[in-house]
Amino acid sequence: MRLTREQRRLRDDGTPAQRKAMQILLALSRLSEAERLVPITSAHVSGASYKMIGDPGLEFLEDFARDARVTVPTTVNPLGTDLRQWRELGIPAEFAGKQERIARAYESMGVRPSFTCTPYLVGARPSFGEHVAWAESNAVCFANSVLGARTNREGGPSALAAAIVGATPEYGLHKDEGRSPTVRVNVTTKPHGLDFSLIGLVAGQQVGDGLPFFRGFRGSEEDLKWLGAALASTGACAMFHLEGVTPEARRARTAGLPSLTISRADLVQAQRSFTDGTKADVIALGSPQLSGQELWSVADRVRRKPPRIPVWVFTSRAVRDENPEPVAAIESHGGRVLADTCLEVTLLEHRFGTVATPSGKAAYYLPSLCKQKVILDELDALLERYG
Amino acid sequence: MKLRGRGIASGFAEGIAFVIRVPFSFVGGADPATGTVLDAATGGANERLDGRIFAFPHGKGSTVGSYVIYGLAKRGVGPAGIVNSAAEGIVAVGAILAGIPMVDHIDVGGLENGDTVRIDGDRGTVELPGVRARPVVSVVLRNGGRILLVRRSPSVGTFRGRWSVISGSIEGREDPKSRAIREVREETGLRGIRFRANAAPIHARDGATMFVVHPFLFDAPSRRVRLDWENVEHRWIRPEEIGRYETVPRLPDVVAAVLRMGRES
């Protein structure tokens, strides 16, 4: 293992948190046979929802925050509730209190209180070829695939360790050879809206931890966000290529790779298999959190077709604050726009047994993480049914 | 005896082993307040991790497991040390956060509950002061998709009457492969066998003796076997039938390991 003089200093003479961070990175290097640590330009940390990390996580973060300080711009995943609306949501005060302590611990380490699963929508947009250390599977998939930045699928503590040291073990997706596709996926139908989530769900089930090279369709950044989020849920995918669209697709070599085909019938089947509920208690939009443009589009739709059941919209604090108009429109038509939190990591299950959502990622996680039933469908179709 | 593995988290620890044979999740697998094992699939429910050297194949499950390990150590109810066959990130990071010495690349199949174990996370070693190592070769002979099992004679020193493959002790600094070839010739009379693969040593315990088994795979030119005094019976079986035989310890693992290496090479 080759270390720089500064890295050796952190390992031997750093603060307790710096030494711990170095030990984590060195152990992970041994596990992955990385030969050095590569400098990073940003980090994104997971493990902030009290619902997910509980007292053990809170305890560690508060202890660690005593002397841990990040050295690169660092964002952090959503919390277990909206820090400003938890009373209205019926969140127990004890839960909210512990949640706030987690938020404060991260802030005192110098982490930006972004509480978002979409750091790429709030200004954390690494350039092509930049090395970063991101946790949160959808953000990892977006950074690698759409932006051409380089990150492995980090866990919460490993991303935090990288943020403290300013470097991460160089293996996997940090190297050219780790970014080559392993399977060709031909899509024979023209996707719209929900279809991008469905393609991700189907492809992830088939390619596992492989790296798919898609062809046969195009999509906007937002479309690819939904595709990547679903792909990284059913599969352990950290990256995909899309012919003619993503920045590294042209360089990717696909000759001789196994291939599979996804047709309209596969998408219809996937939608059916991820739907196990019959009567929705809430329409939930998020997972990942919505962009400003998506907020506008939701506002237009609920204005035209006000829903009879609650509509909960998840976004980041930054996006919510920048878009007061659609937020007001959604909230005056029976919706609620929540920030700091997101669909599966928020305390939602005590109020709603069945969730209707157009998110493939949510449809994958809600039944197991939150013991909820799911109806997976387009927002328009849901508003039609529950309008 | 001393086993050489890989250091994951630094420090030195000594304790009594708590060994399970299945992957372990600290989330749900152990009570975070008391360190009592909850997961019944481990075969060790209600055991306490407190002060033990906890040996298991590898971690699994939620990444919150790292924080649970930290919390156990902070409360003083965590394991004194951790030994894995193949570490993964969750337990490795947890051990580092918690300051619990950890070593991996140790075949935990050779450890037993109650063993006194010393682990050195800096050197990557695991010491079993009460156990003596005995290096042996185990040779899987293959012909047309079948492998040779032999039943050990009542006059051999260990595992009398059990089914095994061709095996023998390695003496001094002898090369395991030449010993393997010699054992085949002595115990079966077969000549012209061809080396196919070997695998990393597998540890099989018999009381205070640790058999360090060097597994080999050879192809045999025929099935005409002439047994010597060490074995009383032989059968050419399909590898998947091995479960029906009462074998020497860990023989199914030995067979699986070399067949896997044979396929890869």
Describe the structure.
The complex is a heterodimer of chains A (387) and B (265). Chain A has 387 residues and is an alpha/beta fold. Chain A folds into three domains: 5-176, Aconitase, domain 3; 180-272, no CATH class; 274-385, 2-Layer Sandwich (Aconitase, domain 3), CATH 3.30.499. In chain A, 42% of the residues lie in helices and 14% in strands. In chain A, the strands form four sheets. In chain A, strands 12-11-10-13-14 form a five-stranded parallel β-sheet, sandwiched between helices. Chain A is globular and about 65 Å long. The termini of chain A are far apart. The mean pLDDT of chain A is 96. Chain B is an alpha+beta fold and 265 residues long. Chain B has two domains: 2-127, Phosphohistidine domain (Glucose Oxidase, domain 1, 3-Layer(bba) Sandwich); 132-264, Alpha-Beta Complex (Nucleoside Triphosphate Pyrophosphohydrolase). In chain B, 19% of the residues lie in helices and 33% in strands. Chain B is built from five helices and 16 strands. In chain B, the strands form two sheets. Chain B has an eight-stranded mixed β-sheet with strand order 1-8-7-3-4-5-6-2. In chain B, strands 9, 10, 11, 12, 13, 14, 15 and 16 form an eight-stranded mixed β-sheet that branches. The longest helix of chain B has 14 residues, at 251-264. The model of chain B has no long low-confidence stretch (mean pLDDT 95). The chains are: A alpha/beta (387), B alpha+beta (265). Chain A binds chain B through residues 20, 23-24, 27-28, 30-31, 46-47, 52-57, 59-60, 63, 155-158, and chain B through 6, 8-10, 32, 63-64, 66-68, 70-71, 74, 87-90, 92-93, 96-97.
